[in-house]
Design a protein that fits this description.
heterodimer; A: about 500 residues; alpha+beta; 8-stranded mixed beta sheet; two-stranded antiparallel sheet; rod-shaped; B: about 900 residues; 10-stranded antiparallel beta sheet; 53 strands; glucan 1,3-alpha-glucosidase activity (chain B)
Chain lengths: ~500, ~900
């Protein structure tokens, strides 16, 4: 009996919306949104909104489900598929499933869903509204600033793109130069070989002469090696910055090889080719320390050269040093750990073999530069290349146990904070956001395998932020990692803030 | 040194895991051949019993008959006790007449000393004695030489003991090399003529790297039972096998020894986590049960002449005549203790359940919410994860009552604690769940980390409550926390202390919506023999060997008691256990342990739970989705559909598997899973009522069809479908890519209704039903009324006050009956204050009626009110009553109100 009284009350409720000082009264059955008010006319029989049936109006909200679509019970829990409209004045109006009406849990911030359960619900809409407005405002500010940053990123990306394109054609153009250089080296070598040949032909030669000739040959071969070694970007020239990676050449011993000093060593030129370098070599040969590790006896000499240069690593190498002024020592060290230097191999070769190898080196290095560039250009850096700036960068986050490292478009890894080896959590796979927002999620796959499980993989969720940073990591499922990453590159054009919060009147 | 050996151990366990990555490593577990006593016993030949009953020692008292037996080979005397128990049961006990020291008898499992009824001697001569078991010409015949017992009813033998002569009782004896009895013993022959005391495995036994010191030497016991006319036997869980037990001829016996079996295999008799030594026999005329009351390692051999073997012989001829009768022979072999057998004589299935319940008690009546859906995973990583899962159920509009936390929630596997970085604020987390009217279960295992800074450990140590090793020091083994001690739950003081640890002020971060899960309570010991405790570990006066299968039973008992105590006796506990024994039904729920995401594991969940239900443990379920490995979406959906119709409904997953909350498989599959869970919630009133009945009467909840159709032989081996209570028949789809199933609808002249379409089908037919991925074939029995709640909310608590829908399924006679049970859903007040509604619903003569369970024709004649004032008018249901008023004494007498005393009414004085 008590219920019936309540249902009668429920039939028509006075909806009071108090917003900005206005009071508006709208009569309609409990749980009906304003937009559907016209369908609930108490003077007429009610037709289910799907048109399936017409019932007397007193069966609306009588706590018995008559309409298949649940439309006759907008304010009770009677229909399994019904929904209840919370006005939530001061916050956002919302629909909740009918099953949450009078279940003892406050779902609507205005508390209107709990009118007969004994639950006492506070009206928290104003507070929520205020908080949301604040949050939105904050978000809007971030979005605004982030979006500006994004514009810059797009500009930079454009420039970078152009530079890379032109460098690509530059590289193509200097293919001729490389061939010349190969020729020059061949000349050097032949000159060096000449005494040996003569010695062989004649069978007898004065010992001193022979030794001097050999010394000369060695000197020249060494010089050729050094040239290759110094010419970090393989453009056929050794320049000041490349020379500056060898601080030991510092003439005044103050520990710094300044631009001027380096230029001095190069005979006053900013850069020199191999022929010019021959003349300068004597200035530095006493101090020069080779970059390669001391050679160790190797039995891998007849290895296929392709297997000596793992492609990816060389790509990385080229990518990391694609600019004249880039002298990233770290990258170099990394690479030296992984790659057997061609020069290391050369040390162990006979003159004749060296000849062949030098040609191969040149032939091989050139395509690497091309390929690295081509690969970088081929990445999908977003509609306006706004993600290009992440390429070749790495971002870290330290948690209680681990240091996580995200190198966008490359790999994700995890390293125990207190020692232990690094574990790959996946290599770049693809953009894998939903269709309408593809660039919101990155997927890294094929990381280290898990015992009895899949290979590790990482999903990176990108959100708009002023900073570029990894903000959280988790492992929701074994060996499936989740990273949250903020970047301006996903910031959308800020919408008009004023339209964010509606109040229903 | 310590850390070094710990490292080695952990490495060993890891290697063990790696070694068994594909399936169970059978090499870790003994076969009968590798278990010295089983091998010894099984080598005995039938038909050569050395035992003779000494009839002149017979003593008859009010409650029992005693009689001595002698082993003619070694002259050792045994004492036989025979009891006639109330409710058509017979108890047979055999112990040594004068054991060197007491032998273990199982305590705490029987709910009371079974009440006896007088036995009388009907006749006796030099060949035997005939005792009366009451009316109906039911007799117990004791034959003297060789000793055997037969229970007969009229001309029919129901059951015979030692009919194959496999009674063997290894008496306690002094150790040859260490005692003054040594020389004397040399002359005593062993009970086994082919053996002597030098036989390996008598005084020491080694399995893999573990040596069992066996200080008491050989102590095993064995007895055989013959069941003439029986082809179907069931029970003795837990095994991953069909409902109907198979012949063990040519293979290993069924083994009962609680073990933590990693990735168990299906369809074999290997021991699993729990043991209930109860076997049921059934034929169209009679159902009986044998309760082998022993908690030591036990093996059960089953053979049957209809399985093509004829191992019994002429011994039955004198009562039986014909040799063509089908027969099943059972042989129980246990490592220690005494022979103590309850024979439950039925005759109907329901009688056997009642008889067994009278011994070990009935299913505990759980809180209603425990019958709803449980979401578990090893592990929900942190509070944020729990929050997100909790919210996920609301976002996807899927009901859920419990979220579970596995071992990772603790601070370094120290139970009763919380990981300070992952679960820093458990009270907040539990409040979040309370806000949604949901609950939580956190795991509490019995292995206790040896760590002097850990309160639980230091109290156990200082109170000296740990199990001891053979040398008297605290037993330590390797488990999740590393080195661990094991509380001696056999001791009442240990259990009382353990229970007190669940008090809110002891178990920090616990609240009343936090319940408990006892895992690893076989007990699991990673570096122990067969991954469990050493048999020569010591529990006070007893060896672990004597009571191994009881350990898990006690853990759950003490935990449930703790949950009751923390609420000062008001709230019903909910405790899930992996290990169990006879009587475990009194303390909560069990699940089938670490299964796998495979179709066969889904299939086997039905017979595994059916066999548990047959032996009293109704609250059974399997990990939905499969624990190990990752289910296909189809398998997961099918498992939800099947699990929704099994008593304990919990999804669980191993930590190495991808996440599988119900909404992770696309909207279509989310909808399918939601629908399965909704069906569960809609039926909660029926489930609750089934549990109430199981609690009251001991009748199982999940029933093989033969329980309700005992004469229908086509149902006897059926285990792909079952009944829930009496009125719902469930045939889950358990085949990959199924297009249809064939359900057997029993009952000649009866009808069944498809619960989804309401289509009526005749009984006694095999019905082919086409199925789609959304199909869950369930049928309601014509003649039943089932209460449902169709307003499904986010948890069962939210549905507390919701209205009911009655589904009245008419019989061909256009009648139906059912009932409705309602109480507060979580306290003991249904018991202590009788606060409940129990209505009987009937439909007959086109009238649907609800009445109280008990009715009386008595009516109210008059009401006398003292100290009253004179009213103007007195009304009962709008009509006036006559009254008299005595002004002098202020006494008001109402004349003939006339209503039935059982009716609801009110009288108004105006």
């Amino acid at each position: 009996m008590q219920h019936n009284v309540n249902w009668l009350q429920a039939l028509l409720v006075l909806s009071l919306s108090v917003t900005l000082g206005w009071t508006v009264e709208v009569q309609r059955p409990r749980g009906v949104p304003l937009t559907k008010r016209q369908f609930y006319d108490e003077a007429k029989p009610f037709t289910c909104l799907d048109g399936s049936r017409t019932i007397p109006f007193d069966r609306v909200n009588d706590d018995y489900c008559d309409c298949k679509d649940g439309s006759d019970e907008p304010g009770t829990a009677a229909c399994p598929n019904g929904s209840f409209h919370c006005t939530n004045a001061g916050y956002r109006p919302t629909f909740i499933p009918s099953s949450r009406i009078n279940d003892g849990i406050c779902d609507c911030c205005d508390g209107t869903d709990e009118y007969n359960s004994g639950a006492s619900c506070q009206n928290t809409c104003k507070e929520l509204g205020r908080k949301e407005r604040e949050a939105l405002q904050k978000l809007a500010e971030i979005t605004k600033e982030g979006f500006l940053l994004k514009q810059q990123l797009i500009e930079e990306a454009k420039k970078g793109q152009q530079e890379k394109q032109s460098r690509l054609s530059e590289l193509q153009d200097s293919r001729k130069g490389h061939e010349d250089k190969v020729e020059a080296l061949r000349t050097v070598k032949e000159t060096a070989e000449q005494p040996e040949k003569e010695a062989k032909e004649r069978h007898l030669k004065a010992w001193e002469e022979h030794k001097a000739a050999l010394r000369l040959e060695k000197e020249k071969a060494k010089m050729a090696e050094v040239f290759l070694e110094l010419d970090d970007n393989a453009d056929g020239f050794v320049d000041v910055s490349e020379l500056q990676t060898h601080q030991e050449l510092d003439p005044d011993g103050d520990g710094t090889l300044t631009d001027t000093e380096a230029q001095g060593l190069l005979g006053g030129a900013h850069k020199v080719d191999s022929t010019e370098f021959m003349n300068m070599w004597s200035n530095m040969k006493e101090k020069y320390v080779s970059e390669v590790c001391p050679p160790t006896p190797s039995s891998d000499l007849d290895k296929d050269p392709d297997s000596v240069y793992p492609e990816d690593d060389l790509d990385e190498d080229a990518a990391g040093e694609d600019d004249e002024d880039d002298d990233d020592d770290d990258d170099r060290d990394d690479d030296d750990d992984k790659v057997i230097s061609p020069l290391q191999v050369l040390e162990k070769l006979s003159v004749c073999e060296r000849e062949r190898w030098c040609l191969l080196c040149n032939a091989a290095l050139l395509p690497f530069s091309f390929r690295a560039l081509e690969k970088e250009i081929s990445f999908d850096f977003g509609p306006s290349s706004e993600f290009a700036y992440l390429y070749s960068q790495c971002y870290e986050l330290t948690t209680n146990e681990y240091i996580y490292r995200l190198c966008p478009f490359n790999r994700v890894s995890q390293k125990p904070k207190y020692g232990g080896s690094e574990t790959s959590l996946g290599s770049w796979g693809s953009w894998s956001g939903p269709e309408d927002n593809k660039y919101s999620v990155m997927k890294y796959e094929h990381g280290m395998g898990c015992w009895q499980g899949p290979n590790r993989s990482t999903t990176v969720k990108l959100t708009c932020g002023k900073e570029t940073a990894v903000v959280s990591t988790s492992e929701p499922s074994r060996c499936e990692y989740l990273m949250e990453f903020t970047t301006p590159a996903v910031c959308l054009e800020p919408p008009n803030i004023d339209t964010q919060v509606h109040d229903e009147f | 040194m310590v850390s070094q050996s710990m490292g080695a151990l952990s490495l060993g366990w890891f290697a063990l895991c790696l070694g068994v990555a594909v399936a169970v490593d059978r090499g870790n577990f003994k076969t009968c051949e590798q278990s010295a006593f089983c091998k010894r016993q099984r080598a005995m030949k039938a038909g050569q019993s050395p035992y003779r009953a000494l009839l002149d020692t017979l003593e008859l008292s009010d409650s029992r008959v005693t009689l001595q037996l002698i082993n003619d080979n070694n002259k050792v005397h045994l004492l036989l006790e025979l009891y006639r128990l109330q409710g058509n049961m017979t108890r047979v006990k055999i112990n040594e007449l004068k054991p060197l020291k007491p032998r273990f008898e199982v305590p705490d499992v029987l709910i009371a000393d079974p009440p006896t009824e007088p036995l009388s001697v009907v006749s006796r001569d030099e060949n035997g004695v005939v005792l009366s078991l009451g009316d109906e010409a039911r007799r117990l015949i004791v034959s003297a030489q060789p000793f055997r017992l037969d229970i007969v009813e009229g001309p029919q033998v129901l059951l015979s003991l030692n009919s194959r002569g496999l009674l063997a009782f290894e008496h306690l004896r002094p150790r040859k090399d260490t005692s003054t009895f040594g020389k004397a013993w040399d002359r005593i022959k062993c009970i086994f003529s082919s053996e002597d005391d030098n036989q390996p495995g008598l005084w020491e036994e080694t399995f893999k790297s573990h040596t069992d010191s066996k200080p008491n030497g050989p102590t095993s016991i064995s007895l055989d039972f013959s069941l003439p006319g029986v082809e179907h036997v069931y029970g003795i869980p837990e095994h991953a096998d069909n409902l109907k037990l198979k012949s063990t001829d040519g293979g290993d016996p069924y083994r009962l020894y609680n073990l933590d079996v990693f990735q168990y295999e299906l369809y074999n008799p290997m021991a699993l986590y729990g043991a209930v030594p109860v076997l049921l026999s059934h034929n169209a005329q009679r159902t009986m049960g044998i309760f082998w009351f022993n908690a030591a390692e036990t093996w059960v051999d089953i053979s049957s002449n209809t399985a093509g073997k004829t191992v019994f012989g002429k011994m039955l001829d004198y009562v039986q005549g014909a040799s063509e009768t089908p027969q099943t022979d059972i042989r129980w072999i246990s490592e220690s203790g005494i022979i103590d057998v309850f024979i439950m004589l039925g005759p109907k299935p329901a009688d056997v359940f009642t008889q067994y319940a009278s011994l070990t008690g009935t299913q505990s009546f759980p809180p209603l919410s425990a019958l709803a859906y449980h979401q578990c995973r090893w592990n929900y990583n942190d509070q944020e994860d729990v929050r997100a899962v909790n919210q996920g159920f609301d976002e996807h509009d899927i009901p859920c009552d419990f979220i579970w936390l596995d071992i990772e929630h603790t601070d370094g596997k120290r139970y009763f604690t919380w990981d300070p970085s992952k679960f820093p604020k458990p009270l907040e987390m539990l409040q979040d769940l309370t806000d949604k009217r949901r609950k939580m279960v956190a795991i509490v295992d019995p292995h206790i980390k040896v760590d002097s800074g850990y309160k639980i450990h230091s109290e156990l140590r200082s109170k000296n409550l740990y199990v001891k090793n053979k040398d008297g020091a605290d037993y330590e083994g390797w488990c999740w926390p590393g080195n661990a001690g094991y509380p001696d739950f056999i001791r009442p003081d240990t259990r009382a202390w353990w229970a007190s640890m669940f008090a809110y002020d002891q178990y920090e971060g616990s609240t009343e919506n936090l319940y408990t899960w006892n895992d690893m309570n076989e007990p699991s010991v990673f570096n122990g023999p067969e991954v469990t405790m050493h048999k020569d570990a010591v529990h006070g006066a007893w060896e672990h060997r004597d009571l191994h299968n009881l350990y898990g039973f006690y853990v759950q008992m003490a935990t449930a008691e703790g949950l009751i105590q923390r609420s000062e006796g008001k709230e019903r506990p909910f405790v899930l256990t992996r290990a169990f024994f006879a009587g475990s039904q009194r303390y909560g729920a069990v699940w089938t342990g670490d299964n796998a995401a495979e179709w066969d594991h889904l299939k086997i969940s039905i017979p595994m739970c059916l066999n548990l239900n047959l032996v009293g443990i109704s609250f059974c379920g399997a990990d939905v989705g499969g624990f190990f490995k990752s289910p296909s979406t189809e398998l997961l959906v099918r498992w939800y559909q099947a699990g929704a119709y099994q008593p304990f409904f919990r999804a669980h997953a191993h930590m190495d598997t991808p996440r599988r909350e119900p909404w992770l498989f696309g909207p279509e599959n989310t909808a399918l899973i939601r629908e399965a869970i909704l069906q569960r919630y809609a039926l909660l009133p029926y489930w609750y009522q089934l549990f109430y009945h199981a609690y009251l009467t001991g009748q199982p909840i999940m029933r093989p069809l033969w329980v309700e159709y005992p004469g229908d032989a086509s149902t006897f081996a059926m285990d792909d479908q079952y009944l829930l209570g009496r009125d719902l028949l469930v045939h889950p789809v358990t085949e990959e890519g199924a297009r249809g199933i064939t359900a057997y609808l029993p009952g000649q002249g009866e009808v069944w209704y498809d619960v989804h379409t309401f289509q009526k089908h005749n009984g006694a037919q095999n019905l082919y039903i086409p199925v789609t991925i959304s199909s869950i074939p369930v049928f309601q029995h014509g003649g039943s009324i089932i209460p449902k709640k169709l307003r499904i909310r986010r948890s069962s608590s939210c549905m507390e006050n919701d209205p009911y829908t009655f589904i009245v399924a008419l019989s061909p006679q256009r009648t139906a009956e059912g009932e409705l049970y309602i109480d507060d859903g979580h306290t003991f007040s249904y018991r202590t204050e009788k606060k409940f509604i129990h209505r009987r619903l009937t439909f007959a003569n086109n009238t649907l009626t609800s009445r109280s369970d008990f009715s009386t024709p008595s009516w109210i004649e008059r009401v006398v009110i003292l100290g009253a004032q004179k009213p103007n008018k007195v009304t009962l249901r709008m009509s006036s009553l006559d009254f008299e008023f005595d002004t002098a004494m202020s006494v008001l007498t109402l004349r003939k109100p006339g209503m039935n005393v059982g009716a609801d009414w009110s009288i108004l004085l105006q």
